[in-house]
Here is the input.
Amino acid sequence: MKPLCYIHDLLLGLWIVFKRTFTKPVTVQYPEERPYLPPRWRGRIVLTRDPDGEERCVACYLCAVACPVDCIALQATDNPNAHERRYPEFFRINFSRCIYCGHCEEACPTNAIQLIPDFEQSEYARRNLIYEKEDLLISGTGKYHDYNFYRVAGVKTRDKDKRQGEHELPPVDVRSLMP
Amino acid sequence: MATIIVDNRSYTVDERKNLLAACLGVGLNLPYFCWHPAMGSVGACRQCAVKQFKDDHDPSGRLVMACMTPASQGTRISIDDPDAKAFRASVIEWLMVNHPHDCPVCDEGGECHLQDMTVMTGHVYRRYRFPKRTHRNQSLGPFIRHEMNRCIQCYRCVRFYRDYAGGRDLNVFGAHDALYFGREQDGTLENEFSGNLVEVCPTGVFTDKTLFQHYTRKWDLQSAQSICSHCSLGCNTTVGERYGIVRRIMNRFNSQVNGYFLCDRGRFGYGYVNSDKRIKRALVRPALDRTKPAQPEGVPQVLEIIGERLRRVRGIIGIGSPRASLEANAALRSLVGPQQFFLGVDEQEHRLLSTILSILRTGPVPSASIHDAEQSDAVFVLGEDLLNNAPRLALALLQSVRQQPMERVDELKIPRWDEAAVCNAVQSRRGPLFMAGHRQTWVHEYATDSYFAAPDDIARLGFAVAGRIGPDAPSVPDLTNDVRDLAQRIADALTRAQQPLIIAGTGSGSQATIEAAANVAWALHQHGKQTRLSFVVPESNSVGLALLGGGRLHDAFDSISQQKADTVIVLENDLYRRAEQAKVDAFLETAQTVIVIDSLEQRTAAHADVLLPAATGPESDGTLVNQEGRAQRFYQVFVPDGDITDSWRWLRDLARAKSPEADGVTGVATWNTFDDAVSATAATASELARIGEVAPPASFRVVGQKVPRQPDRYSGRTSMLSHLTVHEPPPPPDPDTPLGFSMEGYRGPLPSPLISQFWAPGWNSIQAVNKYQDEVGGPLRDEMPGLRLIEPVATKAPCWFTAIPPAFQPTLHQWLFLPLSAVFGGEELSNRSPAIAERISEPFLSLHPSDGARLSLEDQVTIELALQGMTYRLAVHLESSTPMGTAGISLGYDASGVRVPVWVDLFKAIKTGHRRRVA
Here is the structure.
């Protein structure tokens, strides 16, 4: 019986190969041909700017603590003489450790850190996978165009006094006794 | 004890507590804001609502505030009751109506009591979408940042600042939902304990400004226990580090020492560790040639050069330090030999320290911890300026004046935790606090009587009080009527008290006041009182150094000048602070080789032929003995860069370099780990024998694991060093302690010195300390609060001190210069911290107005004063509290070289032609 089985399997295989000869292949000719990646694809990480062109990142450390492989390191700083906003002094992502899970993006309260549909990060040297802030920071708003943390946070910055944000009442006059 | 029933489970609690404290004490979670274990209940925030039932047949019950309800026998409450839960959720939702959405840029975020309580009540989604109240913030000085938008009106800040810490310049303004907690106008918060607002505020209204400058979240701080090195009290602190920079200091609860609060010098004085004046490399003069400046050199080469020199020298002497750990001093003592080891303190301090030690050793009265001071019901301070020399003890005295009025509170059957009712019952009554000194501070407002006089007169007052209390104690015959009456009043108040406390110290440089204090305490002891004595000493390990014992500084100078030795090792000490400049210059000049081990550039270090970089407190392990005689361990928080290492390791290396052949090596050369250092130190003096029991040894493990210094959410492990190397070096080993420089290890109940930070599930803020106590406000579970090394053995007073000084006589041309220390500026290390430096006041000379008139000096003029070979630029302060015939001198930064008390002819010393009116 065994030889019969072999012949059957052989013919079946031949039939499948014959059939596939007439179907469209699924592989594409990357890199000449580029696949479509949806906007929410979790690829390379960028730091974005708010609609006014200022850095969105406020160095709150939530992305760093959310990162399951601890590949984000940053240091907060503040320049009271400039825009009176907190921002990262340095911001470093070790992409040789990153697993593109997107937890940093979910944790980010200001929409600053975003994962974008770019996966072409291969390098020959691991040190080239260490991205500093200048490698991460882009000029645009990324996927979220309108959000500006400082418009809703209630704190004062150089460009925004108290009361000028959304849903902010004018500062209280403590000397007033009016009800 | 009482049994209370919470959600149908019974618990045994202390019936003197309120329900909130009782529930927290047994480990239940109940949200609160306005209550604080050290400040009692006022029932302001309505957050701790629970349902109380009459008995087990009561179906409905009623809502009560747990913090305002006594935990009496049989109390039946429910925390989980739906009504109580809904009530608490509503309260927090109302609070959050005006709370801004700024947690990402708030320094409290991640360790915020408001965040914790919001999560605890289950209020996770905001329904309010309408305008929020805003406030203008104030600039409150170099320590505290202000963001009033975040306020939830719990009143804790003003209750702490005004009621607990005696501050006057923070208050609440405004009305209804527009309350404002701040100063009347922008300006520095003046109170010396303002830093505690950072911990007291349940949210981010008051945050640490020094932390803001290099902000790091709590979860990113590598932390360990430290002991504050900025005064002699030895408060426990938690130091937090990240990227090799000390980021902040938080209070570390120790039931016997500092409790819940620190002073600002301790909290904000850490900046010296990050200073750019740190010595980071081993430096040596080429060929040990004095004419050439010291150059950085590799450690092996430096040790080789020193070793060669040490093998050929005539003799080595070592000068220890009252700010270095016991182990470092013991290492030096072992290296140079006990006969060649000298305490690095000035003559007068040496004498006073020996007197203090002999009083504590031979007398029947034990020394007082800060906790004891808080419990005292009558206090007599002799000649010590507590606010400036030992601030946390001054804060304890503000609590001690509340003790005696508590009798009235108990009589009225008001529970002691019911703060508002207690205040109402107490009104302005204060317990006895007598302060004798030569300088007025705001603490004197709390004193029953203040007496400003020269140290001799203060000592006479003390002797007179002792003479009135103890029948056989020597009395002072020729007193003025005022002083006699005052002595009688003090004696009466002290004999009426149950736990009187007598405080003196080295601050005024007077031996007689210390002896008088001992006489008073011993006389009270004869009366059968639970008397305590407290001596304030200059530095963090002054008592430890004195226990170790060593020669006097002038003997060290002599042995160099008489050619008995030609090489000197100076351990963490600036000799220019200890003796006159000319003497130190001559000493350093004559010595053939000067080896200095220190952490910061200073004048002695500038003369070093070999300069070795020492680790500061947060970079090393060690034991300090505070003014009470309590030995406490501080742990290394992080590994410093450069050649920096523990002082005892440098000394060990010097010893090995001196005798390189491995056989026959003894003493410090055999030390390998910190435990070796501890056991060798314990063997040097009988009183130090138990210092090994202060904290667990390095071999301590729980389930075979070390204890991590980093929290379990420490971030950035795989990228914080990746710009230097992608190979992720392993965490540095720590052979010295049971702690590890990593996130890995045992997490769970630990002996208190090993707790890295107070943190419990659901409790991210410092309030988590409740979860480490069996009883709220009581000792920590498994607490090791340090070890008291000196306990009284005598039951009777030894012979009385009889050297009663004659009354102080002002002279026509001479003024007695007395030291005025400053909380900011009076201590060597904290002075080098930028935040503290901002608060250091200009140097000044304080005179009585009549003396000012005699010298034709007006208030606030600037003078140039020639003193002991130096010229100082000083502002003149005319103050009526300065005793006539004396002059108080405060040199701020420059507190060095000047030996006081000393008689000075001001007519000659003040350089005329330089008097200038200050705007």
Observations:
- Chain B has a mean pLDDT of 92.
- Chain B touches chain A at residues 100-105, 109-110, 129-137, 147, 149, 173-176, 178, 180, 212-217, 219-220, 243, 713-720, 722-723, 726 (CB under 8 Å).
